[in-house]
Amino acid sequence: MADVDQQVNRGHKSTKSGRGAREKKKTKKDKKDGNLKERHNSRAFSVANVVRTQRNLQRNADRAQKKEYVPLNDRRAARVEEAPPPLVAVVGPPGVGKSTLIRSLVKIYTNHNLTNPTGPITVCTSKTKRITLLECPNTPTAMLDVAKTADLVLLCVDAKFGFEMESFEFLNMMQTHGFPKVMGVFTHLDQFRTMKNLRKTKKLLKHRFWTEIYDGAKMFYFSGCVNGKYLKHEVKQLTLLLSRVKYRPLVWRNTHPYVVVDRHEDITHPSKIEEDEKCERSVAFYGYVRGTNLKEGMKVHLIGVGDYGMAEVSALPDPCPVVDKEKEQKVSTLNNKDTKLYAPLSNVGAVQFDKDAVYIDIGRANYTKKENLDLPKKDDEKGSGDEDASSLQDVKDGVDQKMKYSSLRLFKGSKAVEAGEDEEENDHSMHKSQKRRPVDDAFELANSFRRRFDGDDVEDENSGSDSESSDDDSTESERDDDDDGDNDSASGDYSKNSHDDMAEEKQTWKTSIAQQAAANYLRRERSITNLQQLVYGTSETNSNFVSDEEENDLGKDDSDDEDDSDEEFFTLRNKSKQTNDSSRRMPSGTSSVAFGVEAWLEEGDNCLIESIRDKFVTGNWGGDDENEEGGAEEFDDFEDLEAGEKYGPNGEVIEDSDDDDEAATAGMTDAELREFNAKKKAAQKSGFDDDYDESKKGNVGKPGDEQAENEYVEALKREKEARLKRNEEEFGADGETSRLRYEGFRQGIYCRVRIDGIPSEFVENFDPTMPLVIGGLTPQETERGLVRCRFKKHRWHKKILKCNDPLVFSIGWRRFQSIPVFSTEDQNGRYRYLKYTPEHMHCQATFYGPQAPPNTGILAIQRLTGNIPGFRISATGVVLELDASSKVVKKLKLVGTPTKIYKNTAFISGMFNSDLEVSRFEGASIRTVSGIRGQVKKSIREGQPGSFRATFEDKILLSDIVFCRTWVPVEIKKYYNPVTSLLCGNGAEGWRAMKPKAQLHVETETPIEVNPDSIYKPIERKERKFNKFHVPKSIESALPFKSKHKDETKRKKKSYASKRAVVMDAAEKKKYTFLQAVNTIRNEKKAKRKEKNAERRLVKLKEQAKKDEKLDAARRARKRQQHRADGKLAAARERKRLRGS
Asked: Are 1138 and 867 in contact (CB under 8 A)?
């Protein structure tokens, strides 16, 4: 059947005639005879272009190398459901459509119309993913906070206007603090009139955006708005890419925990605020933990406020949960719309979770009562939530009003405590209670407990058999209750009725609770073994056991008080009488000693004392008798952990076998057996993977082995995954509390952080549009010291930076103002002081502030306040090292003048002030202005103090100036001023900072102080006249002629050549006359030609002047038009900037 169904194709017809058939027959024949020659063309299968092929191979290798990376220790949660929602920041100058973009995204995700998006907005994008949207205000402080915390940035740009300075500033902030993912969103494309201009603008913006980010960065174009939102299909393209973004961990966030606060509450006690409105507040902050684990006791920095310690950290339920595949939990009290959106600062959502409460805002919801509706009855018409909400509708008074008239009764027979009771009554009652004895209080408390636990029956019995003190107390309590009943009004009646109902509804489990408690107590007393009584017995005087005879005697005396003692919950123990307790009663016929000691008093080798003698410290622990009787020592099985071998009791090697596995699997079910085998297989596979990874790591040292490098990277990835899996399995699912205690609060947990001691200005001046971040600090970052960093002035900043001018630094979570000192490192390792930052070069900057780990980015801004034209970022840098002292030195020249000179030795004065200073500089190198080098020798006594003797390599002159180059350390000013922008009413505008001296001169219109010594003056030096160089005649005679001195004396009379006359003959006179005539004619022609040229030049100048006048008029009109357009554009930018600030 299979042969019939199989498809049969027609075979290929081979050629039987022609050239091909003849060649095939010949080849077949030669192959059969062995005469076939194998021809291999070396170029038949080679590349056509070697250079192009080499380039393609190099390009493929480069692309593969770019894709490879050493995996970082990603601290984020392995599962998407446990990770915090990524923070998507919408950044841009004012008027570009940031709020419109957030409203459009929220509408797409949740179908909810946001009116005013404020603060963090968390939305669920799918069943397992969610994001947090945050609009960044146009202030430097807010942009710095967003650049430090954002996982993805949507950079909004007005395409009609182009890129603005705020966009470039934010890009530089991100480059300094870790560059997250960036996408461009270009708006206002509907304002272009022609498609040609639109395409041209798109191309320009794309290339400019790619220059700042990277080639191929994602960009989105939003053409227009409909009903205050962007077009639906354009926003969906953005949401599609948002769901596919992969976030790479950044170094700073991978080592520090932080919380982007969703909301906060002032939980300070109202009485403290009434006493002092400016008192320090206790504030609770709510948000997702991001970065690493947030541990209790860790110091945190509230950005814009200061450093604080966390008073309390607790985990709360996730307000915007996603569907967990492993733990399916359906939220029955919230509908689908509420679970997808969480925006507490935007007035969205009616549910707020706190540590110990859940607040539900029902708003204006009104429910029609069921009795007012003419509808058929249904059992499941409303849920529990609807019934609770409908019951809240009938509430007339608030809880605070009801508390004024409420009363609280701690025990059933005790006095009711009222909220409106006067302080005088409280004082009177306290004074009355102080006069009573403690014994009476104990009796009263015992009676109240007895009445509460025994119910009505005990109360009936107590009414006739209580002691006088209890009767008096009960009457007093009843009298107090009667007096208080008149003042209770409605709430008092309600409390009395409730107590009566509770007395009537007697519960069965309370009937014998006192007897059960007493029985449990006696059982515990019997179970306690007294070692002293067990070993030594008990005496008659100290024994707590009571015999039957003593019990009978005591029973007669205590028969009268038997009823009272039974009804009292607490009893007082009298030292003069033995307690009548059956638990301590001895059986009849026994002595007062619990155990007999006769057996312990026996003597001999086999007595009881000898049998336990070796159990104590004084006994024999050597075991000699046992070894003599039993022979050699015996050992148990043991295993060599290093070699992995097992040994028997006699030292023999035990081979591995499956006996242990068989013993372990004995009695297991099929499911347990499968689980056991799966675990065993996983353990073997993990061991094989570890060995394989170690072997691959060892092959990395071979250069040029691409396969080994790829395997090494894969081995690192597998090792990281295995480590994460071990961390998850360490605590298990049941150890969440211990895991939080040891690990801290993992990222993704919605927590509540309480911080005490926050100034009241934070609550009063809170701006919900500003981002609020709590950043965790390491112990090193809480200390302050000198920070040395590599520093460079930004190329777009207009002016160079001056040393000792204050700058606002942004390092890590902090923003603070400090005074930097600039320096440069010489070749010999010296840090030389600089007065200004160099142009287009790096330098060293040292300042005082909180310590930060090396390689941390630094960003400096000169001014945070005011309308600053131009680029606001002054410089960028990176931390190099932390030190307690400064290494910056400044050059200092000590100047002196010679007083006496003798050959190469001179006496110098004016350089030092004392002999002690000279001794400090002995051996120092000195130098003259002319370049002659010397050395300081010894101080001299003659002359002014500080004079010394110096030697030079040549003789110097008295007019020479001698100087010594020295280096003095520069003191770093310890100035630290944190930027507390959240404590000021106007944000950073209200923060008071130190101003540079130049700014103070401009603001106060104070002229600059001029030091006369600092003014450069022209140097006037007298021309020195040197004597003639005299060569002795004896030496000059031996010199060659060209080297001899040639002196020509000045002639008093003219020479013959100048005085002689020239006499011409007739022929020479004719020639001279002819040349004069020719020159005269030529000069005449030249004069006429010159006049003609001047006339033509004049005419041409007039014509050119007319043309230039016309051209100048056209040029002026064109410039006037251009200036008008530029003025309009500048005015529009200024208006936009003022409107944004």
From this structure: yes
Residue 1140 burial (CB count, 10 A): 15
**Tokens 């004396």 -> residue:** 1049
DSSP-based three-state secondary structure for 417:
strand
What is the per-residue pLDDT across 698-719, written as a single tens digit (0 to 9) for each?
A: 554 444 455 666 777 777 777 7
Rounded Cα distance between 847 and 788, Å, is 7
Q: Which two tokens stand for residue 955?
A: 């003789």
Contacts of 298 by beta carbon, 8 Å cutoff, 6+ apart: 257, 310, 744, 776, 777
**Structure tokens that stand for 339 in this block:** 């679970």
Q: How many residues are listed for the chain in this entry?
A: 1141
How far is 411 from 453, CA to CA, in rounded Å? 11
Burial label for 164, CB within 10 Å (0-12, 13-18, 19+), is buried
Residues 745 and 293: beta-carbon distance below 8 Å: yes
Tell me the CA distances in angstroms from 225 to 229, 239, 1063, one per residue in order.
5, 17, 109
pLDDT of residue 462: 42
What is the dihedral sign for C-alpha 344, 350, 352, 353?
A: negative
Give the whole-angstrom CA distance, residue 1056 versus residue 1008: 73
As a whole number of angstroms, the distance between CA 382 and CA 462 comes to: 49
Handedness of CA 43, 44, 49, 50 (dihedral sign): negative
pLDDT at 1041 exceeding the cut of 90: no
Burial degree of 218 (CB within 10 A; 0-12, 13-18, 19+): middle
587 vs 547: CA distance, rounded Å: 7
User: What type of residue is 248?
Assistant: R
- 876 near 801, Cβ under 8 Å? no
Residue 543 CA to its chain's centroid (Å) = 69
- Three-state secondary structure call for residue 82: coil
The candidate with the shortest Cα–Cα distance to 864, out of 926, 822, 815, is 815
> Which 3 state secondary structure label does DSSP give 95?
coil
Output the six-digit token pair for 1074.
């002819």
Residue 182 has pLDDT above 50, yes or no: yes
**Residue whose token pair is 């995700």:** 109
CA dist 638 and 1094 (Å) reads 125
Token pair for 1022: 């007298």
Of the ranges 53-57, 135-139, 412-416, 643-647, which one carries the lowest mean pLDDT score?
Answer: 643-647
Percentage of residues of the chain with pLDDT beyond 90: 32
Cα 869 to Cα 20, 262, 390, 624, 1003, distances in angstroms = 86, 34, 59, 98, 17
Q: pLDDT tens digits for 1093-1112?
A: 999 999 999 999 999 999 99
Full 3-state SS string of 817-883: EECCEEEEECCCCCEEEECECCCCCCEEEEEEEECCCCCCEEEEECCCCCCCCCCCEEEEEEEEEEE
pLDDT digits (tens, 9 = 90+) for 972-1009: 999 999 999 999 888 778 788 888 888 888 888 888 88
Query: Is there a contact between 776 and 292 (Cβ–Cβ < 8 Å)?
Result: yes
Neighbours of 292 (CB within 10 A): 20
Which residue do the tokens 């295995």 mark? 722
Sheet holding 87-91, edge to edge: 219-221, 181-187, 152-158, 87-91, 130-135, 121-124, 341-342
The DSSP 8-state label assigned to residue 1099 in this structure reads H
Q: For residues 702 and 105, give the distance between their C-alpha atoms in angstroms, rounded to a whole number.
A: 52
Stretch 656-668: mean pLDDT, rounded?
62
pLDDT of 499 > 60? The answer is: no
| Residue 550, amino acid | E
Per DSSP, what are the bridge partners of residue 186?
157, 221
Provide the H-helix boundaries in 300-413: 336-339, 384-391, 399-404
Biggest CA–CA distance in the chain, Å, is 192
Q: Report DSSP letters for 527-551, one per residue.
A: H---HHHHHH---TTT---B-HHHH
Cα distance between residue 197 and residue 157, in whole Å? 17
Rounded to the nearest integer, the mean pLDDT of the chain is 76
